[in-house]
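Could you help me review a protein record that somebody else here produced? Do not assume that whoever made the record got everything right. The record follows directly below this note.
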Amino acid sequence: MVACEGGFLYPIVDTGRCTGCNRCTNACPSLSPYNERRPLKAYAAINPAESVRMSSSSGGVFSLLAESVISRGGTVFAARFDMSWRVVHDKTATVQELGHFRGSKYVQSDIGNSYQEIAQLLAEGNPVMFVGTPCQAAGLKHFLGKDHEQLLTVDFICHGVPSPAVWQHYVRHQARKLSRKSWLGRLYYMFGHAAVVSHISFRDKQQGWKNYQTVIRAKGTELRQNYYDNEYMKAFLADQNLRLSCHHCMVKSGRSHSDITLADFWNVHKVTDGFDDDKGTSLVLTNSDKGEQMLAKTCCRRKEVDFDSAIQYNKAWHTPFAESNGRSQFLQEYKNNWL
């Protein structure tokens, strides 16, 4: 895997060792996409534990599904920050660690060896839940080559994934600025940017779910901005720092073949009553009988809704965002100023 100038990793084939088996191309969800698939049912859903919901991006349904899998002796794979504030896929088998995996992380995660570890756990008969982007979920299913009764795949309606390298430079830049605001920060910065930063949230709900804030907390101070004022989020929402393939996504319209799809239920008040308290509501799409059964095992407060009515406020389910006119300029400025 080799990084391009924009900081995205791409696979490079060693032609001298390639045997022409085509396993890599057959496992790629862009080169070998699944068929479109309409969800079985759609729900508005809320986790009844308010503290969990407030620390989640939307309604906190991920945590309920994960708790159910862990209660059966299973393992959950999802994205979290590592010690350097990179976004990586990791695993947990304890409810106590689920807090690290809650909340949106608007960066392409490093999948690492997750697929291989999942294959091993499934071979041993262990329950597994995988949560990732639609292309990551489809990639896992292609990699495994068959469905497994003990595997629950969960994806989310995806805007696209920004560059990990751009994110790392942004965190270093903010850590440097924040460290100057306190003597404690200046002391910690001697050990690097990761030592300065103590907390990051892309979707803090202190001012509400609809007017969420991006927060970077450091020793003795913090950066707190509305999402439309934060420079990283502005670039993300303007589609200036997304991976190029996201603009031509081949896993929209249910083609990830995940069991469950999660999303923010924006404009839920226009679709159904009783779910809009500005603390976060999930749109849950059950895409398989397994997904429907797993959702039924949770204690989430839910109400079935009309799929077509719900999805009109989440068009990224079926339509990729067009490449921004400012994308090339943004990446050129990144290259000139940060590389």
User: Anything to note?
Assistant: The chain has a mean pLDDT of 93. The two ends are 19 Å apart (CA to CA). The chain has twelve helices and 13 strands.
